[in-house]
Amino acid sequence: MAISSRLPAPCSLLMATLMLLIVQAQSITRHYDFNVQMANVTRLCASKSIVTVNGEYPGPTLVAREGDRVLVRVTNHVAHNMTLHWHGIRQLRSGWADGPAYVTQCPIQTGQSYVYNFTVTGQRGTLWWHAHISWLRATVYGVIVILPKLGVLYPFVAPHKEVPVLFGEWWRADTEALVSQALRTGGAPNISDAFTINGLPGPLYNCSAKDTFKLKVKPGKTYMLRLINAALNDELFFSVANHTLTIVEVDAVYVKPFTVKTLIISPGQTTNVLLTAKPFYPKANFYMSAAPYSVIRPGTFDSTTVAGILEYHNPRSASESSFDKDLPLFRPTMPRFNDTGLVTNFTSKLRSLATPQYPAAVPQSVDKRFFFTVGLGTRPCPVNATCQGPTNTTQFAAAINNISLVLPSTALLQSHFTGVSRGVYGSNFPTTPLSQFNYTGVSPNNTNVATGTKLLVLPFNATVELVMQDTSILGIESHPLHLHGFNFFVVGQGFGNYDPVNDPTRFNLVDPVERNTVGVPAGGWVAIRFLADNPGVWFMHCHLEVHTTWGLRMAWLVQDGSLPNQKLLPPPSDLPKC
Q1: Is the CB of residue 340 less than 8 Å from the CB of residue 298?
Q2: The pTM is what?
Q3: In whole angstroms, what is the distance from residue 520 CA to residue 257 CA?
Q4: What are phi and psi of 28, to 5 degrees?
Q5: What family does this belong to (predicted)?
Q6: Span 484-524, pLDDT tens digits
Q7: How many CB atoms sit inside 10 A of residue 234's CB?
Q8: Rounded-to-integer distance, Cα 84 and Cα 206, Å
Q9: Concatenated DSSP letters for 233-292?
């Protein structure tokens, strides 16, 4: 007797309704209210008023699930203009919500509000949000946790607990006054007074022991630390005394797991690590330490170390909160500040999972190839002025392909969308350096950079290969470059000058790491590939804030595709005006 597979109409309707409810449960709209307001905060025995979101430092955590729509109403109650950037969110066709001031939007002025409206598409993991105007991200930043879709497991053993760990920088002075002074004098801004973990400088700074982040763990349990480098100007080594860290994700993309004692994390980057506690109560406490990586001269960067404390739950103690200061306290052995070998060894181990569930969709062919120099330079001092740059007649500058981007007084994306680009930007950003030289050798005599507002235009769905080359002008330096609106694959990197004949033969086109922020090696180069499948204007800049301020930034203009779902959506009605 044959059994019909067709369900009765009421049953079919019930199943359809259940399926719809499941889909709705998996993808929901999440609403957040972010009030930008001043708050008094005391660190290092000194109080100051800082810009915050909702009075919190660091700011509130934004939690979403892959596929969710997110609406964040930002209301500005401070005297500064404000924008927020959702660092690493793809913003597919929603560039109006990306956040960089004068690139995708005019700032939110005092007393005004703007709703950032975006959908989390095809992403899961740790990202972060921060102010994207001037240096306000010094205190305006927070975590974005993107959970996998309901029912989807991590590709590793689920941790006992997940813990956000944000690295930041703290200045006793007002950072807005500090950067304004630097721009007036043409000199370098003062370095920070401390690093922080979750806003706390910790016990290695004077008058700071009470402001220490402590993580209490249970023997034998595994914890996932969601690491975020929110520091303005420093790449950081991170290590936990007498423990190892297993890397499972970077920039919200899973990687093939590997275990280290020390990792490197650049400003803008995120790294998820698994830390497994010792199987038995160790009768000791352990520093979790972060210290800077830099190849420039000591004294020109904050060379201090920040520490939190990893402590174990004592099975014989009834109290969960008590901290036993009489136990031995172990410190990790941190690398030398200029240990480029450790950095290279770490980054070379990063590989995409490249599995059927999490493929590495590396472009195998290339439509557009570009070669960018990235580095420092100079601009002449204003007439009848004395500067504090490399000489008293020059001021510090930075550039990509010798163009130091000048932001316009209106938003680039709005100008593009309305077709009114005349007088706002040009579409002639150089695809290669205008003058070639020995990039990592002796610097040219003329170190001046050009200034301008030029975009580089890409057709929709073009496959792009970009090589970024550090230069030795004013000294080699590592530059963490962040690309808005896209993830990219890091297909190759090396030291010295890029060799366009031999270096591509060693590119990894199988399982390269996928990320949104990559360090251009000091005195070296990095090659990335990406698919230009997101129409709009997309900022790319060094995530060392001082270099961005000096002009190490540019923008891509990705044209609309031919289909309706390949076009930039219209701007929202509440988009701020300049």
Answers
A1: no
A2: 0.94
A3: 23
A4: -125, 170
A5: Belongs to the multicopper oxidase family.
A6: 999 999 999 999 999 999 999 999 999 999 999 999 999 99
A7: 23
A8: 33
A9: S-EEEEEETT--EEEEEETTEEEEEEEESEEEE-TT-EEEEEEEPPSS--S-EEEEEEEE
